[in-house]
Write a structure and sequence with these properties.
82 residues, mainly alpha, 0% strand, elongated, transmembrane helix, membrane, transmembrane
Length: 82
């Protein structure tokens, strides 16, 4: 194969200069980027869901509750995620 490339005068670098190859690389990279983004979102949802099942999520949010000035007379509500 190497001899046929050298005889015809085409080098392997000429193949990468075509628009089809460039568009293929861009499309494949975009596809993998979106796929990895969806996988990251799925892992995040699974992590939060697992923490909620073990009761660790309510403990974290209870300590970080901030009362606003217009909430002074109201009783804070606790949200349970199950």
């Amino acid at each position: 194969m190497l001899q046929s490339i050298m005889i015809s005068g085409n080098s392997a670098s000429d193949e990468w200069k075509s628009w089809g190859s460039i568009l293929n690389i861009i499309a494949t990279t975009g596809y993998y980027m979106v796929l990895l983004l969806y996988i990251l979102a799925a892992y995040t949802v699974f992590y939060v869901h697992s923490k909620a099942l073990h009761g660790e999520l309510a403990e974290e949010f209870a300590g970080e509750y901030v009362s606003l000035p217009f909430d002074d007379g109201k009783v804070p509500r606790v949200v349970s995620i199950i």
